[in-house]
């Protein structure tokens, strides 16, 4: 009886290990444009997991259909054309090539009279510089954990009031690119974690107000801005769909909304590719 039980235990363990070896992470959509995502097959699953780099930065590598694939975030400022990644294995180093296309994002032109603008004071600039450095470090974070899924839960219900990639010009000069989407909703509307992850940090910032950063693994970070309340703490494990805060208009915001951003290999990418 013991031998039979041991046999079934070993058989179950073998099946579990085989399934794990070929289990795939559900992937996001692809769009080979500036601010988009490219997914490339780079090696067979039977090979050791490769290390992949794009612009000398580590790239997410996942299992898909018995292949290793690289999931590459393309910067909004990337020039269109032929690009490459470096793929390293214990036996070799090679390049894989791909191309991206130019994409014309929505533009907004604002004219401001010089008399209506004021020069920010020293205290403001010091805080802005300090917070920008902190946020950059958080968005550049890398952990080796494999993301549970690249199919995300919509973080809030409401109207899309700001599109990803919007180029804003002040007095004819490009001032900023919108690195996320805005979801307008009533103050207090629940905000949900887009996927499983660990709360990397929370804080109140000059421009983004009350903000949450969630690490989903391998350079995939989501942030949730302008919240009225933060309901999670640094280091907390969250499940997809969990309530993490409430919509507000803290920071620089003209009305209650959620600014939701997605960052991959240190660059902002279109959140809609994950929905």
Shape: globular
According to CATH, the homologous superfamily of the largest domain is: Glucose Permease (Domain IIA)
Rg on CA atoms, Å: 21 Å
Secondary structure class reads: mainly beta
What fold name goes in the CATH topology slot of the largest domain?
Glucose Permease (Domain IIA)
Range of helix content: 10-25%
Q: What percent of residues are in strands?
A: 35-45%
* CATH class category of the largest domain: Mainly Beta
Give the overall average pLDDT.
91
Number of helices: 2
Specify the CATH architecture of the largest domain.
Distorted Sandwich
H/E element sequence: HEEEEEEEEHEEEEEEEEEEEE
What does the largest sheet look like? 10 strands, antiparallel
What is the number of strand segments? Answer: 20
**Unreliable parts:** 1-22
Number of domains: 2
Termini gap: 50 Å
Descriptors:
Immunoglobulin-like; 275 residues; 10-stranded antiparallel beta sheet; 2 helices; 2 domains; Glucose Permease (Domain IIA); 20 strands; 4-stranded antiparallel beta sheet; disordered N terminus; mainly beta
Polypeptide structure, described:
By secondary structure, this protein is mainly β. The protein folds into 2 domains: 25-100, Immunoglobulin-like (Sandwich), CATH 2.60.40.1590; 107-274, Glucose Permease (Domain IIA). It is 14% helix and 41% strand. The chain is built from 2 helices and 20 strands. The strands form 4 sheets. Strands 9, 12, 13, 14, 15, 16, 17, 18, 19 and 20 form a 10-stranded antiparallel β-sheet that branches. The model is unreliable at 1-22 (pLDDT under 50).
